[in-house]
Amino acid sequence: MVGETFLSVSGSAMSASGKPPALRLAIDRFMKESGVEVRPSHEVDNLGGIMSLIVSTGGIAILPAYAKAFLPESVTTRPLEGVTPTIDLSIGYRKGNDSAVLKLFLSRVGELGAGIEKPVLLDGVGGGVGVVRGRRGVGV
């Protein structure tokens, strides 16, 4: 990657907590674990911005796999090899939502994580914000 224009999601984009976004953390962790030390030449707040910069600068970026569906034909993708980066996923819902569909969904959400590394239901149907944590790959 030496000599390449490396693009990334901003380390502070849309983060109310002041922490870098999960995608940026996953990318940084992957790069470090891969022994690659590189600083982005451009950081943007969203994937649309990165896609635009890939086209306009000829740069490279690590993107979530779903971004592939939005890339123009002029952009080529390659899957990452080996262990790919992961991010935690969560489910949020309004505390007072007593929908039967939501209750059914929450009662079965563990089944969604059957192939995921240790999904954990942190909060039940009874109230609060429900969060299910699991791991999903982000590499294109």
Strand content: 5-15%
Major sheet details: 3 strands, parallel
Query: What is the strand tally?
Result: 7
Strand order of the largest sheet: 2-1-3
Please tell me how large the radius of gyration is.
18 Å
What is the helix content?
25-40%
Kindly report how far apart the N and C termini lie.
16 Å
Q: pLDDT below 50 for ≥5 consecutive residues: which ranges? A: 118-140
The pLDDT mean sits at 77
Helix/sheet category: alpha/beta
- Globally, the shape reads elongated
- Count the domains: 2
- Topology pattern, helix = H, strand = E: EHEHEEHEEE
Tell me the number of helical segments per DSSP (H or I, 4 or more residues long). 3
Question: Can you offer a commentary on this structure?
Answer:
This protein is α/β, with parallel strands linked by helices and 140 residues long. The chain has two domains: 6-79, no CATH class; 89-137, no CATH class. The protein has three helices and seven strands; from the N terminus they run E-H-E-H-E-E-H-E-E-E. The strands form three sheets. Strands 2-1-3 form a three-stranded parallel sheet, sandwiched between helices. It has a two-stranded antiparallel sheet with strand order 4-7. The two termini are 16 Å apart. Mean pLDDT is 77; it is low at 118-140.
Please name the defining characteristics of this protein.
3 helices; 140 residues; single chain; alpha/beta
Quick rundown:
The chain has helices at residues 22-33, 47-57, 100-112, and strands spanning 6-9, 42-44, 60-61, 86-88, 120-121, 132-133, 135-137. It has 140 residues and is an alpha/beta fold. It folds into two domains: 6-79, no CATH class; 89-137, no CATH class.
